[in-house]
Please model this.
Amino acid sequence: MVKLIGKKKIKTAVFISGRGSNLKSLIKFSKKSKSPILVNLVVSDNKKAKGLRYAKQNSINFFIINYSNKNSAEKKIKNLIKINHINLICLAGFMRILSKKFIKSFKGNILNIHPSLLPKYKGLNTHKRVIENKEKYSGCTVHLVNSKIDSGKIILQKKIKILIKDNEKKLSNKILNLEHGLYPRAIKKLFSNY
Model:
Protein backbone atom coordinates (compact mmCIF):
# COMPACT_ATOMS: atom_id res chain seq x y z
CA MET A 1 0.00 0.00 0.00
CA VAL A 2 1.21 3.50 -0.84
CA LYS A 3 3.12 5.26 1.95
CA LEU A 4 2.25 8.81 2.92
CA ILE A 5 5.12 11.27 2.78
CA GLY A 6 4.54 14.13 5.16
CA LYS A 7 1.10 15.63 4.61
CA LYS A 8 1.11 15.46 0.83
CA LYS A 9 -2.17 14.12 -0.52
CA ILE A 10 -2.16 10.87 -2.49
CA LYS A 11 -2.80 11.40 -6.19
CA THR A 12 -5.83 9.26 -6.96
CA ALA A 13 -7.57 7.99 -10.10
CA VAL A 14 -11.22 6.98 -10.00
CA PHE A 15 -12.49 4.47 -12.59
CA ILE A 16 -16.18 4.66 -13.51
CA SER A 17 -18.63 3.20 -16.04
CA GLY A 18 -21.94 4.87 -15.18
CA ARG A 19 -23.65 7.52 -13.07
CA GLY A 20 -20.58 8.27 -10.96
CA SER A 21 -22.30 8.97 -7.64
CA ASN A 22 -19.38 7.42 -5.74
CA LEU A 23 -17.00 9.54 -7.82
CA LYS A 24 -18.99 12.62 -6.75
CA SER A 25 -18.67 11.66 -3.06
CA LEU A 26 -14.93 10.91 -3.43
CA ILE A 27 -14.30 14.30 -5.09
CA LYS A 28 -16.20 16.04 -2.27
CA PHE A 29 -14.22 14.05 0.31
CA SER A 30 -10.89 14.75 -1.41
CA LYS A 31 -11.44 18.51 -1.04
CA LYS A 32 -11.53 18.29 2.76
CA SER A 33 -8.33 19.22 4.55
CA LYS A 34 -8.37 15.95 6.55
CA SER A 35 -8.68 13.82 3.41
CA PRO A 36 -5.54 11.84 2.51
CA ILE A 37 -6.43 11.76 -1.20
CA LEU A 38 -6.75 14.14 -4.12
CA VAL A 39 -8.72 13.03 -7.20
CA ASN A 40 -6.48 13.92 -10.15
CA LEU A 41 -7.80 11.61 -12.84
CA VAL A 42 -11.05 9.95 -13.92
CA VAL A 43 -11.03 6.99 -16.30
CA SER A 44 -14.14 5.58 -17.96
CA ASP A 45 -14.80 2.75 -20.40
CA ASN A 46 -18.07 4.43 -21.40
CA LYS A 47 -18.20 7.73 -23.28
CA LYS A 48 -21.85 8.14 -22.18
CA ALA A 49 -21.05 7.68 -18.47
CA LYS A 50 -23.06 10.33 -16.63
CA GLY A 51 -20.36 10.51 -13.97
CA LEU A 52 -18.00 12.25 -16.39
CA ARG A 53 -19.87 15.48 -15.67
CA TYR A 54 -18.42 15.50 -12.13
CA ALA A 55 -14.91 15.41 -13.58
CA LYS A 56 -15.81 18.30 -15.92
CA GLN A 57 -17.46 20.34 -13.15
CA ASN A 58 -14.38 19.95 -10.95
CA SER A 59 -11.79 20.47 -13.73
CA ILE A 60 -10.38 16.97 -13.26
CA ASN A 61 -8.61 15.31 -16.20
CA PHE A 62 -10.76 12.52 -17.60
CA PHE A 63 -10.21 9.95 -20.31
CA ILE A 64 -12.52 7.56 -22.12
CA ILE A 65 -10.80 4.29 -22.90
CA ASN A 66 -11.97 2.06 -25.73
CA TYR A 67 -12.11 -1.47 -24.32
CA SER A 68 -12.54 -3.35 -27.62
CA ASN A 69 -9.01 -4.67 -26.97
CA LYS A 70 -8.43 -5.18 -23.25
CA ASN A 71 -4.65 -5.41 -23.56
CA SER A 72 -4.39 -2.17 -25.48
CA ALA A 73 -6.90 -0.47 -23.13
CA GLU A 74 -4.87 -1.41 -20.05
CA LYS A 75 -1.64 -0.21 -21.67
CA LYS A 76 -3.29 3.19 -22.27
CA ILE A 77 -4.54 3.30 -18.67
CA LYS A 78 -1.07 2.41 -17.32
CA ASN A 79 0.37 5.24 -19.37
CA LEU A 80 -2.21 7.71 -18.02
CA ILE A 81 -1.47 6.58 -14.47
CA LYS A 82 2.25 7.13 -15.04
CA ILE A 83 1.90 10.55 -16.71
CA ASN A 84 -0.41 11.78 -13.93
CA HIS A 85 1.80 10.34 -11.12
CA ILE A 86 -1.15 8.39 -9.69
CA ASN A 87 -0.50 6.32 -6.54
CA LEU A 88 -4.01 5.05 -5.74
CA ILE A 89 -6.84 3.71 -7.91
CA CYS A 90 -10.44 3.69 -6.66
CA LEU A 91 -12.88 1.59 -8.65
CA ALA A 92 -16.35 3.13 -8.39
CA GLY A 93 -18.84 1.19 -10.48
CA PHE A 94 -16.20 0.28 -13.07
CA MET A 95 -17.75 -2.58 -15.01
CA ARG A 96 -14.54 -4.12 -16.35
CA ILE A 97 -12.44 -6.85 -14.80
CA LEU A 98 -8.82 -5.75 -14.55
CA SER A 99 -6.22 -8.29 -15.65
CA LYS A 100 -3.99 -10.03 -13.11
CA LYS A 101 -1.00 -8.35 -14.74
CA PHE A 102 -2.55 -4.88 -14.32
CA ILE A 103 -3.48 -5.52 -10.68
CA LYS A 104 -0.01 -6.89 -9.90
CA SER A 105 1.67 -3.82 -11.40
CA PHE A 106 -0.12 -1.60 -8.86
CA LYS A 107 0.99 -3.63 -5.82
CA GLY A 108 -2.17 -3.51 -3.74
CA ASN A 109 -2.95 0.14 -4.45
CA ILE A 110 -6.37 -0.53 -5.97
CA LEU A 111 -9.58 -0.23 -3.96
CA ASN A 112 -13.11 -1.28 -4.89
CA ILE A 113 -16.54 -0.78 -3.39
CA HIS A 114 -19.00 -3.67 -3.76
CA PRO A 115 -22.74 -3.62 -2.96
CA SER A 116 -22.90 -6.67 -0.70
CA LEU A 117 -21.48 -7.95 2.57
CA LEU A 118 -18.50 -9.78 1.13
CA PRO A 119 -17.54 -12.61 0.97
CA LYS A 120 -21.27 -13.14 0.24
CA TYR A 121 -22.64 -12.24 -3.20
CA LYS A 122 -19.55 -11.54 -5.23
CA GLY A 123 -20.02 -10.43 -8.83
CA LEU A 124 -23.14 -8.98 -10.44
CA ASN A 125 -26.88 -8.79 -9.64
CA THR A 126 -26.20 -8.74 -5.91
CA HIS A 127 -29.47 -7.09 -4.81
CA LYS A 128 -31.58 -9.48 -6.90
CA ARG A 129 -29.79 -12.49 -5.41
CA VAL A 130 -29.98 -11.11 -1.86
CA ILE A 131 -33.77 -10.63 -2.12
CA GLU A 132 -34.35 -13.98 -3.84
CA ASN A 133 -32.47 -15.71 -1.01
CA LYS A 134 -34.57 -13.87 1.61
CA GLU A 135 -31.52 -12.50 3.41
CA LYS A 136 -32.22 -10.43 6.53
CA TYR A 137 -29.26 -8.09 5.98
CA SER A 138 -27.23 -6.66 3.17
CA GLY A 139 -24.78 -3.80 2.82
CA CYS A 140 -21.58 -2.76 1.12
CA THR A 141 -17.87 -3.47 1.37
CA VAL A 142 -14.69 -1.58 0.53
CA HIS A 143 -11.84 -3.97 -0.20
CA LEU A 144 -8.40 -4.14 -1.76
CA VAL A 145 -8.43 -5.55 -5.27
CA ASN A 146 -6.61 -8.80 -5.97
CA SER A 147 -6.69 -11.17 -8.92
CA LYS A 148 -9.92 -12.89 -7.79
CA ILE A 149 -13.23 -11.04 -8.21
CA ASP A 150 -14.39 -9.28 -5.03
CA SER A 151 -12.00 -11.35 -2.91
CA GLY A 152 -9.34 -8.90 -1.66
CA LYS A 153 -8.74 -7.89 1.95
CA ILE A 154 -11.79 -6.16 3.45
CA ILE A 155 -11.15 -2.63 4.73
CA LEU A 156 -14.64 -1.70 5.95
CA GLN A 157 -18.25 -2.86 5.71
CA LYS A 158 -21.62 -1.32 6.50
CA LYS A 159 -24.69 -3.45 7.16
CA ILE A 160 -28.41 -2.64 6.87
CA LYS A 161 -31.56 -4.58 7.62
CA ILE A 162 -33.65 -5.59 4.63
CA LEU A 163 -37.28 -4.59 5.09
CA ILE A 164 -40.24 -6.62 3.82
CA LYS A 165 -41.21 -3.76 1.46
CA ASP A 166 -37.70 -3.62 -0.05
CA ASN A 167 -37.45 -4.65 -3.67
CA GLU A 168 -34.32 -4.77 -5.81
CA LYS A 169 -34.51 -1.05 -6.73
CA LYS A 170 -35.22 0.17 -3.18
CA LEU A 171 -32.41 -1.93 -1.75
CA SER A 172 -30.03 -0.75 -4.47
CA ASN A 173 -30.77 2.91 -3.67
CA LYS A 174 -30.39 2.40 0.08
CA ILE A 175 -27.05 0.65 -0.33
CA LEU A 176 -25.78 3.24 -2.81
CA ASN A 177 -26.40 5.92 -0.16
CA LEU A 178 -24.41 3.83 2.33
CA GLU A 179 -21.55 3.52 -0.17
CA HIS A 180 -21.16 7.31 -0.39
CA GLY A 181 -20.25 7.45 3.29
CA LEU A 182 -18.36 4.17 3.50
CA TYR A 183 -15.80 4.74 0.72
CA PRO A 184 -14.31 7.91 2.29
CA ARG A 185 -14.33 6.28 5.75
CA ALA A 186 -12.48 3.23 4.42
CA ILE A 187 -9.86 5.46 2.78
CA LYS A 188 -9.41 7.38 6.03
CA LYS A 189 -9.01 4.08 7.89
CA LEU A 190 -6.47 2.83 5.37
CA PHE A 191 -4.41 6.02 5.69
CA SER A 192 -5.10 6.65 9.37
CA ASN A 193 -1.59 8.07 9.84
CA TYR A 194 -2.49 11.03 7.62
Remarks:
- The chain has six helices and seven strands.
- The first strand starts at residue 10 and ends at 16.
- Residues 11 and 86 are 5 Å apart (CA to CA).
